[in-house]
Design a protein that fits this description.
Length: 114
Amino acid sequence: QVQLVESGGGLVQPGGSLRLSCAASGSIFRISTMGWYRQAPGKQRELVATITSGGYLNYADSVKGRFTISRDNAKNTVDLQMNSLKPEDTAVYYCNLRGPVAYWGQGTQVTVSS
């Protein structure tokens, strides 16, 4: 059984930074692609960034150069460092593990507002 628990969301002013963290249970973490997705009110859930077990990175165009995804296989964690935040980054952010099935965390709210 895989469980994903996100933390680190909150309210930040435009131009600020936040760091999200996702702690995963289960031994398949090390061999799985991990990702962060987000869903804004009235919009579909969208990919933000992914990182494979080998460290290959993929980012949505809207966050390239501002967000950085990383993982620590010893701690079973995946982080998302978000810099230069914009109001349009406001959303619920979800951690994802791409295994035999997709696993999702409960989500953490990020609000960018002055």
